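Fig. S4 source data, part A: sequence.
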Amino acid sequence: MTQPAACLAVLGTGSDVGKSVVATALCRLFADRGLRVAPFKAQNMSNNSGVTAEGLEMGRAQIVQAEAARVAPHCDMNPVLLKPVSDQGSQVVLNGRAWLEASGRAYYQRKDELFAESCAALERLRRTCDLVVMEGAGSCAEVNLMAGDIVNLRMAAHANAPVILVADIDRGGVFAQIVGTLACVPQEQQARIRGFVINRFRGDLGLFTSGVEWIEAQTGRPVFGVLPWFRHFRIEAEDAVVIEQTRAFTPAASGEAAIAVIRLPHISNFTDFDPLTGLDGVQLVYLHQPQNLHGFRAVILPGTKSTRSDLDWLAASGWRTRLLDYAAAGGHLLGICGGFQMLGERVEDPHGVEGGAGVTDGLGLLPVTTVLRAPKTTTLTAFTWDGIAGQGYEIHMGCTDAPAGSGLVAVHRRNGADCADTDGCVAMGGRVLGTYLHGLFDEPAITRRWLAGIGLGEVVVDRLHGPAARDRAYDQLAEHTATHLNLEAIIALLPPQLREVRR
């Protein structure tokens, strides 16, 4: 019988400390050494998700890590995905399919069942590779949640995985983060934490030498390295905290053309717009507080996990009036997934898919009505827009039918099966567009087509865009990480048979 793959766990002192990025870097670095690598996160909480070749849903962060490892994403890499629909509840996606809607308390009561499912997924994954890079969630030292933990130290113990603990120096208190985490971890688990990575350092690294020495003296464990903050390349983020925009933005003041994305309370799949962030001459901004939209070349309504609730928020906050005024003045709007639904005349929920049954008025800018209903659509979708081929993915509850002749794109294939369909809708002389397609801007020619439609045809969209740009970023991340971490010390945590360079 083949020996199951070894495991290495990357856990954190808190949320958004950089676990995902460090795990992504290790996936690329170990893949570059000739190892067959697979990422794994037992439980992910994010509305940023994607679709596998099998038409199953998983967290976007593990899709990114699979890309970095140069392997196809599979839902075994993220068996439990929590998609928040409110402050108190989430949709639970189990093994790639929507499973139940649960409050935090109800979810906690099923933790043993979910832990067993996660262990089974990990063991299946271990039969396909040499090394599994495991990622934790939040802090691994939440003492009130440890008994039901399925993703941090309990899972690391199940896999017999050595743990690298990631801390974020930029938020301050890095010494307390590390020492406090160790103090909160049960004694029998402390030995599993083998060393630390300090992330997001700014300034002269030489000034932190005494800090490294103090941490190592206090804990008896090595600091594997200090990672400087990087801004010259971009890795898709998992958490929406990276897109917060608290102040109004005046396009004319920036000196560049500006595109706005409305930062909805339940925003999902905001990484759709990453290809627009690195373009010369265009500035992409996320707006939460209502403001005058005059001067923006386009406004995007992104995906949302709770369309009706976010429509209510648009009305109550004042955004509805601002958006309608912008459209009436000749502005360009694009709605993706939930944003597409919002642009329509109404959203009907006869079975209470998003909570209580009912109907919510949309913005009325597209001649469509959406009916929310199960099952969830999860597809990889091949399409053409004005003859330009692209591939995206769909994740949505419900159906939105556009009048004949008003569709945005022609759909040729879903989950590998040929079809002859349309998606989306166009109205108001081409100024208002809606589509269910995520990943729309991954294809450079599609991006050029849309930019030309909003009067930015002069913007250069080079060939390193979308997947090609992401792959280059993984190489840059790996080089950055290898420069600043003691990679040999991390390799020494692996079984002897994996320590040799194979390439």
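Fig. S4 source data, part B ends here. The chain has a mean pLDDT of 92.
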